[in-house]
Amino acid sequence: MRTAVVVVGAGHNGLAMSRRLAERSIDHVVIERGEVANAWRTERWDSLRLLTPNWLTRLPGRTYDGTDPDGYASAAEVATFIQTYASELAAPVHTGTNVTAVRPAGKGYEVTTDRGCWRCAAVVIASGAYNIPTMPSAAADIPPGIAVHTPSTYRNPGELEPGPVLVVGASATGVQLADEIHRSGRPVTLSVGEHVRLPRTYRGRDIFWWTDRSGILDESHDDIDDLVRARSLPSPQLIGTPEHRSIGLDTLRAAGVELVGRLGRIVDGVAQFSGSLANTCTLADLKANRLLARLDDWASALGLDGQVGPPERMAPTSIGTRTVLELDLNRAGVRSVLFATGYRPDLSWLELPVLDRTAHIRHCGGVVCDAPGMYVMGYPMLRRRRSSYISGAASDSAELAQLLHNHLDKQAPRRAR
Question: Is pTM, for the whole model, over 0.90?
Fold first, then answer.
C-alpha cells in the first residue's frame, strides 16, 4: 500500500497532524495500536486529572466547549474529547494496528504493521514520549515480597498491598500519588529528587493563566539555554481539583508524609537516600519565586496590577530538622514501592540510527536528525514550552506540517521523472 505520509499514533498529537495534512490535501493514514486516545483510556490511574485548566484544552479546529472552563479534565474526559475530535475530522485512522518496523525505502520509508505494509515519502512519529516507565537501577535490588508499581500499572490505593508505601519521585505524579495513598490510610515515605515547585493559583488566577498570557508557554526551543536539561525536567508539582488546591512537599509533610532525599541504592533491603534534600528544596524554592517575580514584572508592564491580587512569594519548603538517610524496607513493613521516576518512548520498531544513548529520538524542533522526511510530535518542549501540554499540538502541527509539505514538494519533481 502507498500513501504520502504515515502518522504513527492517534492521540491528540497524531490527530492534530492529520488535521493539518488534510488542510493541505496531503494523502495520509494514521496508525494506532489500540483505539483512539488509547493511552488515556488504558494507562492512567483512576483519579488522574490534567494539570492544565479546561480552557487551555484546544486542538486545531476545536476548543473546550463545556460548562467548567476553570476545571481540570479527568483521563476519561480527555479520551472523550480526543475521540470526538477524531470523529469530527473523519481522520483516516487504522485502529488495532501495531507498527512493527519503520525502515528506509528508496527516498522514503517502509512502515510495516501486523496488518500490512505501507510505503510513504514521510513519517510522523506521534506515538508519545511516555510509553515505558523508567526506574533507577536500585529497583533491581528491592527485596522479594515487596511489590513494585509504576504509574502505568497503578490504578488506586485499594489495589496496593496492605501496609506502608515508598513513593520514589516528586514530580506532579509522585506528589499526587503520595497524597492519594496517604489519604487512603497508608503510611507513605516520599523520596524527593529534583522537582519543580509551583502554586496552583497566583494572585487570584491559575498559574497557567499567567504562563499562557505572559508568553512563557510560547518560548521557542531556540531561545532556551540548556535545552537538554529543560526537556528532562520533571512536571511541576500541581494537581487539578475542584477547590484548586496547591500540592507540594509542605502540604504532604503537614499531612504526615515522611520526606527523604533522592534514592541512591538499596543494600540488603535497606534503601539509602541522599542527604541533600534541604539543598534540593532550596533550589526549587528559588526557581519558583524567580518565576513569580518575572510574572509580577510582566503584569506591571502591562498595567494589570489592578486586575489581579497583590504579589506573593512562596515560603521556604519546610522539611524539618530530622534527616533520614536509610529505611529498612522489611523492618518498616513496606510492601509496595511505587516508582514515579519518569518515562521513555518505545521506539523499538524504528530501524534507523536516529536514537541517542538514552533511547530518545534526536531531533531539532520535531525534525528528526539524519532522516529526511521524518518528524516527531508529543515530546516535552518540542518546539516551545507549550509542547508539553495538549494545547501545544496546534502550533507544533502547523509548523511541522508546513515543513513536511515543503519536503514533499522538493521530492515531487524527482518522483515525476
Answer: yes
